[in-house]
Design a protein that fits this description.
single chain; about 150 residues; alpha+beta; Jelly Rolls; five-stranded antiparallel sheet; four-stranded antiparallel sheet; 5 helices; 9 strands
Amino acid sequence: MQQIRFKDFDKLKGLLSKVELFEDFSRYDLPKIAELCDNIQFYEENERIINKGDSDDSFFILLSGSARVVKEAAGESVFTLEPGFIFGEISFLSNTERTKYVIANERSFALNISRIKLDSLKPDMRDRIKDYLIQKLVKRIISIESGS
């Protein structure tokens, strides 16, 4: 993993505006979100983004490339992540260990948002992000329970 910095702030805001989570944020809010982006990480093909059993206080947004979710390090993929997908949010919200591995399928960029960075936002922006994460988790649970 290599941490990178975007030098083109406008390009970064454009990239973020394409992420579903940030679609409804105003042009005034996006620069504040972009400030979180000092932690964009670059991953090589087959590099682990998340390790099962790790504990940390962040979640990720895949900005480019793709990644696979696996139960065991050398196991088969249970899900493929595409750009815009948010992952690691269960551990972030519940303060629990990571339950699966996430491995880059190809060269990929991901935004890592820590609790400290999120807490630095205005309360209304922070709450919108947390509400979005919770809504996504609820939809995922309903989908799993209904078998779709």
